[in-house]
């Protein structure tokens, strides 16, 4: 059985970008999704996708307020996972 990867885009809502608290919330949600069998990556334009469960990798993307990021999820719960992660990325968490 082949797992289809689904993608969604989100605009970073936090004034500090995906750094510290916003990145931590994203990583926690991606880690929780991973436990349910959903693999999640995140990327910004011009960069390689990174594992969304890695705080250092997410922060290293350098995504700033207003940047568009692409989230990809593979697994049975991918649509719900993407919906949750998009909401986290787009929230102001400062």
TrEMBL record:
Principal subcellular localisation of the protein: cytoplasm
Transmembrane segments: none
Residue ranges of every copy of the HPr domain listed in the record: 5-94
Keyword annotations: Cytoplasm, Phosphotransferase system
Localization annotation: Cytoplasm
InterPro entries from the UniProt entry: HPr, HPr-like, HPr-like_sf, PTS_HPr_His_P_site, PTS_HPr_Ser_P_site
Keyword Cytoplasm in annotation: yes
Top-rank taxon, per record: Bacteria
Function: General (non sugar-specific) component of the phosphoenolpyruvate-dependent sugar phosphotransferase system (sugar PTS). This major carbohydrate active-transport system catalyzes the phosphorylation of incoming sugar substrates concomitantly with their translocation across the cell membrane. The phosphoryl group from phosphoenolpyruvate (PEP) is transferred to the phosphoryl carrier protein HPr by enzyme I. Phospho-HPr then transfers it to the PTS EIIA domain.
Protein name as it appears in the record: Phosphocarrier protein HPr
Organism: Patulibacter brassicae
